[in-house]
Amino acid sequence: MRKIVIAGNWKMYKTQTEAKAFLVDFLPQLTAQASEFGAAAQIILCAPFTTLPTLLGLAANAPTNLSIGAQNVHWADNGAFTGEIAAPMLVELGIKYVIVGHSERRQYFGETDATVNQRLKAAQKHGMTPILCVGESKQHRAAGETETWIASQLQNGLQDVDLTNLIIAYEPIWAIGTGDTCEAKEANRVIGKIRSQLNDRDLTIQYGGSVKSDNIDEIMAQPEIDGVLVGGASLDPEGFARIVNYRSL
Length: 249
Ligand code: PGA
Known about the structure:
With 249 residues, the chain is an alpha/beta fold.
């Protein structure tokens, strides 16, 4: 049975004060608006490291299916890796989900399928569920290489990774932060290809890239799409509450 997972990715936005203000606004809207569908979804907010304790404290008393997640994790349990965060540090706080291999990490911080693979394994070793991001660039798409690119990201990134404790997010790079959402049917098609490559019928596969309150219902109506990973639109409590409480078409 595939789980529906709606995740926000705050990226490098929000101080502790701003994060607290978000939840104070967001939590009552969750319960007030909860639709039949939204209420069944697992909701995850992947926030900057500095905001995690504050968010975990506030979410602990929330009567919802809300989890707080991180945006990256190192592969070693500790060591001389300036600026990195280890899995035991996150687990001690109570973090259960972590994004791995986001295209911004790959593009700006030199992450490769090999480092992504190590990070995925470290997250799982410590009992967290990683959200692996894959997706093609505009150039790959124009060259007709979307499927082969993603297939190789999956093959290399997922070596010795446990598919039963994993979420995948299909995020076409050209759709991230651009307002240029991938057409829902096309996202559905690519996600269907990912599912058949991995051959695991219980795997949750999300779509990400310019998801907004005005396109969420159409995206969630696609049979292969099990949720979304939301960047910009997750920063606004009202907009994210509408996304979480998507309606069935
Ligand atoms: P976006 O970002 O929703 O702002 O396009 C998505 C993501 O980067 O995960």
